[in-house]
Amino acid sequence: MSQHINQLLEWQPNPHLAGLPSVGADSHRNAMRHVAAAVTIITTHDHANPIGLTATAVCSVTADPARLVVLINKNTAASPVIVEHGRLCVNVLAGDQEDVGRVFAGMMPGVVGPARFDHGTWDSLVTGAPSLKDALVNIDCRVIKVFDESTHHAYLCEILATRERAGGEALIYLGGAFHHLPHS
């Protein structure tokens, strides 16, 4: 069986740049602290438990077809479950949901695993992945491709359902801290 590889296999890196060293992890982290990002909770579930984590590495890919990419560290509990079950929900947090973002980021000592879902009100849309009620938007997805990139998996997702909240501030992460941004 042939598998379609969606990559420009004939493309080659610029030879003048290929041999240059890249910056270290600390330089990268410091640079990325200057990039404001929406705070999301990525959720999924196996057959027994809901699983989720706070993440900022979510990006729209195309509108037609409706696709986005989510990057998650392979060492999280969610990553192998997403690989196995092929579903996730991106819950974009509102400013008044910072406490829930902190819980799912592991910033609340002693609150781990399914106990995280005791914070916030949860239901589901199409895939069965947990959806946070009153998030700015819930984006329920099926995973269509998984890319293995160093410490992370990049999940290319097709959007099956969305649910929007009417109004509210956005929660963003910038400079190592949460900030509230008025929604216009």
Strand content: 35-45%
CATH fold descriptor: Pnp Oxidase, Chain A
Q: N- to C-terminal separation?
A: 51 Å
Radius of gyration: 17 Å
Counting copies of identical and different chains, the oligomeric state is: single chain
CATH architectural label: Roll
What does the overall shape look like?
globular
The largest sheet has its strands arranged as: 3-2-6-9-10-5-4
Number of strands: 12
Mean model confidence by pLDDT: 93
Unreliable residue runs: none
Q: What is the H/E order? A: HHEEEEEHEHEEEEEE
CATH class term: Mainly Beta
Q: Largest sheet, described in full?
A: 7 strands, antiparallel
Structural class: mainly beta
Classified in CATH, the superfamily is Electron Transport, Fmn-binding Protein, Chain A
Number of helices: 4
Q: Helicity level, as a percent range?
A: 10-25%
Number of domains: 1
Describe this structure in words.
It is a single chain. The strands form three sheets. Strands 3-2-6-9-10-5-4 form a seven-stranded antiparallel β-sheet. A three-stranded antiparallel β-sheet has the order 1-11-12, with no helix packed on it. Strand 11 and strand 12 form a beta hairpin. The longest helix is centred in the first third of the chain and has 8 residues, at 25-32. It is globular. By secondary structure, it is mainly β. It has helices at 15-18, 25-32, 78-85, 98-104, and strands spanning 37-38, 40-45, 50-55, 58-62, 67-73, 87-92, 122-124, 130-132, 137-149, 152-164, 170-174, 177-181. It has a single domain (37-179), classed as Pnp Oxidase, Chain A (Roll). The mean pLDDT is 93.
